[in-house]
């Protein structure tokens, strides 16, 4: 990477287009903070902005073959960042609207809470070790980033990520182990409900 320090942006883009990871890493380090600051003007959230910029660089790497045609690197990066931010904010708005709809429909919420499938998921979460359960709930329900969770629990983001990986594996295994029992129960419930119609 040291040899690339004198490369201008367009030269780096050409190297990245050829799959050069060192050049990509240098471009990332060169523009990451500036792009986070740019995105944060729209999101007003540092964690959300960091996530968006990471997605931007992932997208750039996945479509790196097109970089050879880029002539103005900084303008290109900011344009991609702006588009990604707009998409992320639209998605967030849709999720917030969906959450409001659920809150305004208590009957639907009650039906969801009574669904035996959700009881299995709740049991899967309840059997997690205390800290792993806390991390899982903060990430999935609280929608906090690994960095935010780490700060609140006084652990590293890497440790938070490990807890999440183990939690997801454990919850998935629990659900699979109980899948047959759940299917049998649902079949019985459907059969029993139908049978009542004949009495």
Protein architecture, described:
It is a single chain. The chain is mainly alpha-helical. It is built from ten helices and no strands. The protein has helices at 9-17, 21-43, 46-62, 73-103, 106-114, 116-126, 130-140, 146-153, 157-177, 179-196. α3 (46-62) packs across α4 (73-103). The longest helix is centred in the middle third of the chain and has 31 residues, at 73-103.
Going by helix content, strand content and strand pairing, the class is: mainly alpha
CATH topology of the largest domain: Rna Polymerase Sigma Factor, Chain: A
pLDDT averaged residue by residue: 79
The CATH superfamily of the largest domain appears as: RNA polymerase sigma factor, region 2, helix turn helix motif
How are the SSEs ordered, and which strands pair?
Elements: H1 9-17, H2 21-43, H3 46-62, H4 73-103, H5 106-114, H6 116-126, H7 130-140, H8 146-153, H9 157-177, H10 179-196
Helix pairs in contact: 1-2, 2-3, 2-4, 3-4, 6-9, 7-9, 8-9
Domain RNA polymerase sigma factor 70 region 4 type: 121-168
Protein name: RNA polymerase sigma factor
Transmembrane segments: 166-189
